[in-house]
Amino acid sequence: MTPRDVSGDDSRWSDLDRPPLNAAALRRGLVREGGLWSGFEVVAGTGSTNSDLVARAAAGKAAEGAVLVAEEQTAGRGRLDRRWTAPPRSGLFFSVLLTPGDVPVARWGWLPLLTGVAVATGLSRAAGVDTALKWPNDLLVTVGGEERKAGGILAERAGEDGVVVGVGINVTLREDELPVPTAGSLALAGAVSTDRDPLLRAVLRSLEEWYERWRAAAGDPTVSGLQETYAAGCATLGRTVRAELPGDRSLVGEAVAVDGDGRLVIATEEGVQEPVGAGDIVHLRPA
């Protein structure tokens, strides 16, 4: 699907509770000399900002720090190729291009976890909502005493030296608009603000801070403080979980740690501690 530029969207005020992003003001506030963000574009709609940015990077049309935001995604993807859809302007749907060439590739797996920490930190500051992270990259909020997913992160390689990280956050999604009962939004979680401009600015500034800190430590999750901060905000740790693993294998046990490679360590009843690097995690009981 070809991206539609915001300026050509005649229906952008169709929902007055959901005004469009102020692209010019956001660009002025985020793109600055010496900063990470090198470009900032908002399109009215596209299939997937991740797919678009990966294609631009492959064609040499995007530099590190490029940010692509869509007011609506019609083919957004989550982990395991799950679809991510939401009404126009009801959330923040964006992708960024990172090229951490001075960080060993073996540590690039920390980028989605780093993004989760940055998103949670930025939203805590700007929305006043308590958030938690479900390993590896879901953002959880509390609605009516229940944990619900309000956001997700997807990282994809872009050529030999790049990674595109996509973020989707439900901001003003209403109860009757939820795709599944386990979904939530910042509004439903009682956010003090659902103005998407300051929310996006706070998230991107937080991401810049964490990325630069991680990069300065050559991607070391301990030196950068990333591993400790992620663990402190991870709702998965201390819980009994079921990991649905590749090859139709499952593993049940207590999530006891996130190791130096960003893997979830699960302790089974047999006394074995097994690190899980990929899979779907189901929380079986509260911490």
From TrEMBL:
<dbReference type="InterPro" id="IPR004408">
    <property type="entry name" value="Biotin_CoA_COase_ligase"/>
</dbReference>
<dbReference type="InterPro" id="IPR045864">
    <property type="entry name" value="aa-tRNA-synth_II/BPL/LPL"/>
</dbReference>
<keyword id="KW-0092">Biotin</keyword>
<keyword id="KW-0436">Ligase</keyword>
<dbReference type="InterPro" id="IPR004143">
    <property type="entry name" value="BPL_LPL_catalytic"/>
</dbReference>
<dbReference type="InterPro" id="IPR003142">
    <property type="entry name" value="BPL_C"/>
</dbReference>
<dbReference type="Pfam" id="PF02237">
    <property type="entry name" value="BPL_C"/>
</dbReference>
<dbReference type="Pfam" id="PF03099">
    <property type="entry name" value="BPL_LplA_LipB"/>
</dbReference>
<dbReference type="GO" id="GO:0004077">
    <property type="term" value="F:biotin--[biotin carboxyl-carrier protein] ligase activity"/>
</dbReference>
<feature type="domain" description="BPL/LPL catalytic">
    <location>
        <begin position="29"/>
        <end position="215"/>
    </location>
</feature>
<protein>
    <recommendedName>
        <fullName>biotin--[biotin carboxyl-carrier protein] ligase</fullName>
        <ecNumber>6.3.4.15</ecNumber>
    </recommendedName>
</protein>
